[in-house]
Amino acid sequence: MFRLFSRGWRGVVCCLIAMLATASPPVAASEGLSFAQALAIAQQQSPVLQAEMSRVEAALQGEGPADALPDPTLILGLDNVPVEGDARYSLSGEPMTMQRIGISQRFPNRGKRQALADGARARTAAAQARVDSMRLLVMRETAGAWIDRHSLLRQRQVIDALIEENALFEAAVLARIAGGQGRAADSVEPRREAARLADRRDAVEARLQQAEASLVRWLGDAGHQPLAGEPPDPALNIEHIVENLHQHPELEEVARRTQLADATLAAARAGKKPDWSLTLAYMNRENFSDMAMLQVNIDLPLFNGTRQGPRIAAALAERQAWQANAEAVRRDHEAMLQADVAEYQRLARALARQRDTLLPLAEEKVALVTAAWESGELNLADVIKARSERLDAQLGDISLHAQFTRQATDLRFRHLPAEATREDNRHDN
After folding, report:
1. Domains and CATH numbers, the chain
2. DSSP states of 132-185 as a string?
3. 3 state DSSP class of 74
């Protein structure tokens, strides 16, 4: 199924990872918000996760009483009180007048109670799977926001360095003009380039603020901290992800919902069996001997065609719906995984070309065009164009690096089970 990731590809990715390690200086000092710290804070403080964990607690609290007997019923009453004659309303004038106190307990059939207990446990398991699924979502979004911000900081560094270089370049152009080796019109080009660089820096700055806002969404105030360290290693064990796909929490949640539907169906079928109740009462008679009463009541489910039957049919249809939904979710995840692996490999190839070919060629072109301009063979506009193309190549390299790293984290946090992801994070730390 996933032959795209061949052994040869492992070599390409490993070489690419080695290049990434020396590609650029770190964005921030050692003090600040690292990638691992961002993930840890997101898991601790995300209100989305806190809400889902509260639902797990609610489901756990419901497990205990799920199969408990109904509360008993207290019985208080007066029996055979006369309402006519000389002894009317008297509690002692007639031998059959009694003051009754008793208790009644209802006993649902065993199958119904077992189904209720199974349903409660399935509901808790589904809620826990939902927590794991939301944890992966929070980690994926946090990772993406951190990587985006890190990438934009690097882009800003490159633009700032080029702005400084452009200032020196302008001084060199003015010196050439003063020495009679250039045209007066050439003095305009560095200033135009400075304006274009300022525009690009403003665009990066705006996107940087957006990335920081996205990080704050998941981390709170901690998202404003300066970043520290480098992004995670984008190398992945694709075979490991494929092998563990069946343990994904979304698939687990659907499986538990199917179990809940099974329990609902079992409860509906148990409705065809009678429940019963037991009543015990003590009756006091004034001036006469007291009495006791024991009574058993048994339900008679005689109308299955119009009562229990439709309930069973509805529960069966719901169960079939969840089974079909489970298959649909499984297929969705397999398709998404295959698409994500293909994109991961495409980005690896694109980044390798950028590092090995396009970026060196852009640097070489700047050197050649600058030399030709200095010898009078080309115009200054050609130099400015070559420098702009080099900037595009540099920013493209940073952007591809971020996309590749983000695709790797998406693969990890979208398709790995939550437990395996936590294990990976411990290794990253």
Report:
1. 7-428 (1.20.1600.10)
2. HHHHHHHHHHHHHHHHHHHHHHHHHHHHHHHHHHHHHHHHHHHHHHHTTSS-GG
3. strand
Nearest by Cα to 115 from 255, 256, 271: 271
Nearest Cα residue to 394 out of 364, 362, 370 = 362
- The structure's pTM equals 0.79
pLDDT-based confidence at residue 155 (cuts at 50, 70, 90): very high
Question: 3-class SS at 335?
Answer: helix
Question: Which structure tokens are listed for 185?
Answer: 């019109």
- Average pLDDT rounded to a whole number, residues 148-175: 87
Q: How far is CA 82 from the centre of its chain?
A: 72
139 contacts 280 by C-beta, under 8 angstroms = no
Q: Which amino acid is at 182?
A: G
Count of all residues that appear for the chain in the document: 429
CA gap 290, 112 in Å, rounded: 38
C-alpha span between 76 and 109 (Å, rounded): 27
Residue 71 tokens read as 């509360």
Residue 292: its H or E element: strand 291-298
Q: What gap in Å lies between CA 274 and CA 308, rounded to an integer?
A: 11
Tell me the percentage of the chain whose pLDDT exceeds 90: 62
